[in-house]
Each structure stands twice: as structure tokens, then as C-alpha cells.
Amino acid sequence: MPASFANLNLPPQQLANLGNLGYKLMTGIQAKALPHALQGADLIGQAKTGSGKTAVFAITLLAKLDPQNFAAQALVLCPTRELSAQVATEIRRLARYQPNIKVVTLTGGQPLAPQAASLEHGAHVIVGTPGRINDHIGKHTIELNQIHTLVLDEADRMLEMGFMEDIGKIISLTPKHRQTLLFSATYPDDIKRLSAQFQRNPIEVKAEALH
Ligand code: ADP
Ligand code: MG
Asked: Among 38, 78, 183, 211, whose Cα sits 20 to 30 Å from the Cα of 28?
């Protein structure tokens, strides 16, 4: 039977928000992954496009955010500018149950200075491409030492695009005790190596069907 979000131990405000967004039943990957992710486990999630993987990591990272602390607490790495924008939009929708959560997108094709300015007063969540995030690291415009949730979204595509080195540099600046969530449509050897390098006892969840 398809599972309801009410089965999860979410704040009632988030349940109401999910209802307002039209999220009644969890998709297959959400039902399999969220109970583990919300307990803080590292995760490898594999499910086809359109199966609701964004909500798995968005709900998880938002549940752990301290809204009073304007340091970056969650970092989501995505392969492209378009995907980063989509992910940021979805996180903002899922964050509506808490006031004043700031999500900043850092991707290429735009000057660094306005992005740096948008970080000056802090941001709870950073979403972006590995190349541009590394540019900000080089300019000392972001701090990653309070990241508690790190997400590698579409990890297979990021590796295909040659982002391995950038990803390694970025992760090396995040705390060791973070939660690391990795999502990939495929699970080749280089993804297994990436997981072995950056995750601790990850739970593998795979969903074929949507529900
Ligand atoms: P994926 O990353 O797996 O390709 P997305 O996270 O982009 O998929 O989700 C695809 C679409 O499904 C989005 O428009 C999202 O808002 C919607 N969606 C996700 N989870 C649910 C749900 N449980 N109920 C209804 N719609 C959902
Ligand atoms: Mg996705």
C-alpha cells in the first residue's frame, strides 16, 4: 500500500505544508529512503527521473536546519545550472513551514560578485555546481565548516562531466560527521568509489515503481 507522509515523524507544520503542495502519498523512493535519511543515515538513492528524489533530501536537510543560525548547514551539489535552479525552487517550497529559510544558488554563467554579496548575510542552504562552488571557495566567499547535510544529486552526471576533483576538494572542507546523501540514476564502479570515499555505511535504496 502506498505510504503517507503522516507515517514519518515530521513536524506537523511540515505535514500541513506537504498537504498544501499536493503531496499526499510518498513515492516509492521517498517511502524507502526517508525513514533512514531522517534518522541521519548516509544513503545511496537510485530511482528514475521524476520519482521525487529531491524531496527525499530536501525534507531531510530541512528537518535538521537551525533557522537561527545563518551559517550554511546544507550543501547540494548538482551537475547543471538548470538542475540547481529546479532543486532550489523545490527546497524553498518544502521549506515554507519555517519562516526565513534562505536558499542560495551558486552556478556559473554569472559574475561571482553578486553571488558573494548574496552570501554576506548568511544562507542556510547552498545549491550549486561543483565548479562555481569551488570558485567561491577560492575567493573565501563561502564557509563549509557547519555543513551537516551534503547532497550529491545526479552524481553519475557530475562524474561524467569531470567534476570528481572539484567534488573532492569541496567535501574535504565539510565536517567529517556530516550526513552524505548520494543520488544517481545509475550505479557504475566510479559511483561506488565515490560513495566509498565520502560516505559511512550508506544504506542503498532503489525504487523501480513510482509508488
Ligand atoms: P527526480 O529528482 O527523482 O527526477 P523530482 O524530485 O524532480 O524527481 O520530482 C518530480 C516532480 O514530482 C516534482 O514536480 C515534484 O514536485 C513532484 N513530487 C515529488 N514528490 C511528490 C509526492 N510525494 N507527491 C506528489 N508530487 C511529488
Ligand atoms: Mg532529481
From this structure: 78
Buried/exposed 123-159: b ≥16 CB within 10 Å, e otherwise: bbbbbbbbebbbbbbeeebbebebbbbbbbbbbbbbb
**The three grid cell numbers given for residue 114, joined into one nine-digit string:** 553578486
Q: Which atom of ligand 1 is nearest to the CA of 51?
A: 3
Q: Residues 6 or more apart from 70 whose CB is under 8 A from it?
A: 102, 121, 122, 123, 124
Mean pLDDT of the chain: 95
| Domains with residue ranges and CATH for the chain | 28-207 (3.40.50.300)
Closest atom of ligand 1 relative to the 87 alpha carbon: 7
Q: What is the dihedral of CA 11, 63, 84, 152, to 10 degrees?
A: -140
For 176, other C-beta atoms within 10 Å of its C-beta total 7
Q: Which of 17, 48, 34 is nearest to 154 (CA)?
A: 48
Q: Tell which one of 46, 51, 184 to mutate to probe ligand 1, the residue whose CB is within 8 A of the most ligand atoms.
A: 51
Q: Which three cell numbers stand for residue 179?
A: 550526513
- Cα–Cα distance for residue pair 172/176, rounded to 1 Å: 8
* Cα within 13 Å of Cα(140), Cβ side: 0
User: pLDDT confidence of 208, banded at 50, 70, 90?
Assistant: confident
